[in-house]
Amino acid sequence: MSASFKTQLKKEVAPYERTELKASVIQMVNTLIPLFVLWYLAYASLSVSYWLTLPITLVASGFVIRTFIIFHDCCHGSFFKNKKANNIVGTLTGVISLTPYMQWKYSHSMHHASSGNLDKRGIGDIWMMTVTEYNESPWYTKLYYRVYRNPIILFGIGPIAVFLLQYRFNRRDAKRKERLNTYLTNLLIVTVYALLILAIGWKAFLLVQVPIFYFASMLGIWLFYVQHTFEDSYFENEEEWSYIQAAVEGSSYYKLPKPLQWITGNIGFHHVHHLSPRVPNYHLEEAHNATPPLQQATTITVIESFQAMRFRLWNEEMKKFVTFRQYKKGQRLKERAQRELASRRLQPFK
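Below the sequence we write its predicted structure tokens.
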């Protein structure tokens, strides 16, 4: 990918980096009002059957994800032109998704600045090891990594560990503004939850809020995971790394059915978003359709996305993700080749 091509690609997407107040307000209305209505309906359905409540909470969790997309755009300064408006709406929508605005804004900006860079992993990313790193790690690190990458842990316990626990605390070197925002978010969450418990009782609150929280956070982690974990993704060391190439080749186009595309705020066009984070979510599809090179990005369907759970390690030599089974097979072949080479060296000359 030449420098001139990269420059041209950025220019082609630039027209879509426009925030429209009307579109942003409409999105808030068609997201937050349905969410509140669905929350109430889930509560009201408790008097009928919990089997009716659960499907309602699942639909409501979709609107929590859509709320998170608004929060996400505010973090990038792309939802409103006004910085203060982004900060206020971002903080309030962060309460709904249990995510502190300033804290996540920092970690997510680091993710964008280093996505696909093997030398700058660790902030805002899902932990990934290369084959070499895994080979050189002690047994207990390998065991921990295998447990961490297990789908049951990643998508089962992960939502609780990240959204319920990790986000309640500041990072060590967080600045005062970020720390205060985390404290404010925690205070608002406690206040809102306390008022709801006083209004409907703790049992009804938990029966409604727990599944909404769990479904939304689990699906949120899933979306983030599959959009960067596909077989021929992009990872390079610092000296070879390219921001634009990482965006186009290291982020997928997650082709979702239209209802799911709408509920997830077009985040499936992740390659467009990584190329230009200032494009608001409601212009991502337009940018994709109007820019032919972006249509060459790796496209993943819902069925194909489930294959992502198999990928565990990045093979630097093959430039692709591999499963643990493929890794073991590769190691056996290398060991066999090494034994054969050693055997030839030991044979006396005839």
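The first strand starts at residue 129 and ends at 130.
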